[in-house]
Every structure is written in C-alpha cells, then in structure tokens.
Amino acid sequence: MTHGSADRRDGQDHMAMQGALPGAGAVIDWFGLGRMPRFHDAEVCEHDLETGRHGHLKLRTWRMTGRVDPKGFYITDRHAVVTLTFAQVTRLELEDAETPGIVGSLTLSRLEDGSGHRVVWDSSWGIWGSVEGQGLSLTLEPMDASPL
C-alpha cells in the first residue's frame, strides 16, 4: 500500500525538463537509465522543509540491477545520496513528516505558471507529500553499499 499519489500527469513534464535542472544531468548519468529515476524504495534520510526559506530533501538511493544473489535478494549498485534543494520553498504539503520514509515514486515538474518547480512523492511507509518552490537543484554524493 502506498500513501499519497505522485501525480502521473507530472510525469510528462518530468521527462521533458529533467536535463534543465542544475545537477540533473549528473543524477541521470550516475544511474545510467537515460532518464531521471523515480527513486522507488529510496529512503528519505533527511528533510528540512519550511515555507518562506530554502529547504532540502535527501534520498538514500541505488540502482536495481535485475540480478539476484545466491540468497535470492536483488543486487543493487550505484548507491548514492541525492539531495533536492530549493532556494525558496513557496508551498508545502507533507504527511507523516515526523517519520522517515520509503519512496514509492517521485516526480519533478515545472509549475504551470513557470515560476518554479514541484516535487511530489508517495510512500510505502512514512513521510510523503509535495514541495513547490524556486531554484530547484540536485546534488549527488556517491556512497558505498553498506547496509542502512
């Protein structure tokens, strides 16, 4: 069961604008998918979001390889922390904000009036919601594959 619903209409804009955001190209290249990942099963490991100021959302994430280990578990690679940073948060809707979260799907889109961007994510557990604001950028910090 997922909480919330990442707006599927945003997916079209998500694909069209992904390379225009600062740092998006590095994220796309790191995961090697040819597009921005949806961050399925990523851990929301930190968030500092409040309207009227800068804010960020940090995701601990990886790439699923499609291979399994001898115990039958999927093998992951390309582990990283991806930080989505807004220079100014203008609108915020969060649920379960005090609980760390596991992302179901995350989308990025431009606001209809062109004044900024929207990040929407649903979750299988914990925090979910949407953030709107100006000056969205992404940073990627590669990391080892140590357990959570």
Task: Walk me through this protein's architecture.
This protein has 148 residues and is mainly beta. It has one domain (10-142). Helix content is 11%, strand content 49%. The chain has two helices and eight strands. The protein has an eight-stranded antiparallel sheet with strand order 4-7-6-5-1-2-3-8. A hairpin with a 2-residue loop joins β6 and β7 (128-134). The longest helix has 8 residues, at 10-17. It is globular, with a radius of gyration of 15 Å. The model is unreliable at 7-15 (pLDDT under 50).
Q: How does the major sheet shape up?
A: 8 strands, antiparallel
| N-to-C series of helices and strands | HHEEEEEEEE
What is the count of DSSP helices, taking H or I runs of 4+ residues? 2
What is the multimeric organization of the chains shown? Answer: single chain
Number of strands: 8
Bin the strand percentage: over 45%
Distance between the termini: 22 Å
Number of domains: 1
Silhouette: globular
Question: How do the strands line up in the largest sheet?
Answer: 4-7-6-5-1-2-3-8
The residue fraction in helices comes out at 10-25%
**Mean pLDDT over all positions:** 89
* pLDDT < 50 stretches: 7-15
Radius of gyration: 15 Å
Question: Class by helix and strand content?
Answer: mainly beta
